[in-house]
Write a structure and sequence with these properties.
alpha/beta
Length: about 180
């Protein structure tokens, strides 16, 4: 079982519900706020969904974890994944000709062995996307941020060490069930 914990929001912005802004052609700014869930929960949900879609057994909840070994709960299965949000934003800049959307994601991901209460590996994931269009669309801001976040999560599996670690931790569980 893989458990994905809420990602701790370590961005320097004072308002952690803010996920970006729209800059109008006159220079005025409108803050973009996550309306469904806090950014840390949203990142965890995307990561959890990614594992589920790739055939892994995923713990139902999304617990809070401070990334310390002492805070690992033995009920969280075999592999615990959590981390920190270092950057998660989308900026939409309008001018008279077009609108540009720029999304950036930077996550520090921590992998831990639940049963041994030991951190195994830490990896930084980064992604960005840019899109130009003729008019502003709120949905496009969401799409660009989601695309950058999904790309960052996919990069996790490009790291051979991460792939081996996930395979080893999930196969340990499979082997222990056979006996």
């Amino acid at each position: 079982v893989i458990t994905v914990a809420t990602f701790n929001d370590e961005r320097s912005a004072p308002d952690h519900s803010a996920i970006g802004k729209r800059v109008k052609s006159d220079g005025s700014e409108i803050k973009a706020v996550s309306q469904l869930m806090q950014p840390g929960q949203a990142v965890a949900a995307v990561m959890k969904d990614f594992f589920y879609k790739h055939g892994y057994t995923v713990y139902g909840g999304i617990p809070e974890w401070d990334l310390s070994e002492r805070a690992i709960d033995s009920r969280w299965g075999m592999l615990l994944i959590g981390g920190e949000i270092e950057d998660l934003s989308v900026v939409c800049t309008s001018n008279f000709a077009d609108v540009q959307y720029e999304a950036t994601v930077r996550l520090r991901v921590v992998f831990a062995d639940v049963q041994r209460k030991k951190i195994l590996y830490t990896r930084t994931l980064e992604s960005s996307s840019t899109y130009r269009h003729v008019r502003f669309q709120k949905e496009r801001m969401e799409q660009e941020l989601n695309a950058a976040l999904s790309t960052a999560v996919e990069k996790m599996f490009e790291d051979d060490k991460v792939a081996r670690l996930i395979e080893e931790m999930t196969s340990i569980r499979s082997e222990s069930i056979k006996y």
